[in-house]
Amino acid sequence: MQRKTFLKLTTALATGLLLNAPAHAQTTTINVAAFADFAGPYANVMPQMQGGRLAVIEWWNKEVGSKLNVQIVVKTFDTRYDVAQTASLWPGIKAEVKPALLLGLGGPDAAALQQRLPEDKIPMLMSTATYGFGWKPNQWALNLRPTYAHEAGGFLEWFRTTKLDGKRPVKVAIITSEATPAYADMAKGLQSFTKANPDKATFVEAVWTEVQPADVTLAVRRLVNAGTDVIVIQTNTAQAVATKRALQALGKNVPIMLSLHNGLVGSSKALGDPNGFAGDFEVGAIADASESDSTARQFYSMLQEKHGLKSTWNAMTIMGLGQTIVAVRAIEATIKAKGAGKVTGESVRETLMNSQFTSNDLMGILPGADFSNDNPFPTGTAKVNIVTMKDGKVVRAAGDVAVPMVPKW
């Protein structure tokens, strides 16, 4: 009798514990799609950017998402930095992944999807500077930095005042290609800046070449003979390397201004000389890749130590970090405002349009991020960081350089 009473009591207690135990909240999965180029012009630097992306996702899932019972899953697709490839793959990606947000790579993505994304209700974030053809209201393709012309203009004014003592306009040329709309747009934007600011810069020539040129010595000789002060190359490492080899062959030393995705470290590596772009410059409205102990560098080190980040500290890694930190913060804010079950492309874009993320929110990678329906890039006061290369290392030349006004083109 005592044994039966004990068994009944034990069973009752166990049942009561089960009934009163809190149910484990079900984890919600939010899908993100990403474009990459492991086979085209960015194949040699894409792993760095991709490493930055994935480390931020892992960090957020463990440190933030776990507390919200949400996990972000990213699926990456190789588009070879090609407009036609991006356009053909997108319907299948959209149907398969059903992403709440898309991590774009560059110009071909904007050219292929700019008109489609508003209808698809999926926002795309890109860590590149903005293209002129995307500078329109009500965009769903959003850039984290102002236009390439804004970034180049900030650098050229700094160069004029510091290297030329402000005595005359900078003579600037650009090497680019008509193969992609984005590359062609870079030349138009720079021309727009120089035309609006004749006291600051004089446009020498736009050299149109292949995306991956074999030799540009003849064109570079023309630029040298014209007295060019700065050669702007915001396209890719292949064009940067071809231009550097041409200058070496001519025995000339005209400074080259690079963008982040074809920056000093990546281009030097492609050249086969770790100090190959010594004295040249890299410019972007995002954290720079110098060795200074910045908040951004501390975040990177933490990802290395705790979340398996293998990418080295360079501009491509920083772009991957910056793009993804804005993405996860936008998703996080949407979850807190609407609930995990209502995170859609439309709700994430609404968050991006109505939120102002600070530098602290973005771990120092960006000075902040705020968008509006009028501009597909942050509308706050943008500033660029300028670095150069010395003894194989990237060192800061100037920080928080003002970005000039550039007319739309």
From TrEMBL:
Keywords: Signal. Gene3D superfamilies: 3.40.50.2300. Residues 1-25 form the signal peptide. InterPro entries: Leu-bd, Peripla_BP_I. Residues 29-376 form the Leucine-binding protein domain. It holds the Pfam family Peripla_BP_6. Belongs to the leucine-binding protein family. This is ABC transporter substrate-binding protein. The lineage of its organism: Bacteria, Pseudomonadati, Pseudomonadota, Betaproteobacteria, Burkholderiales.
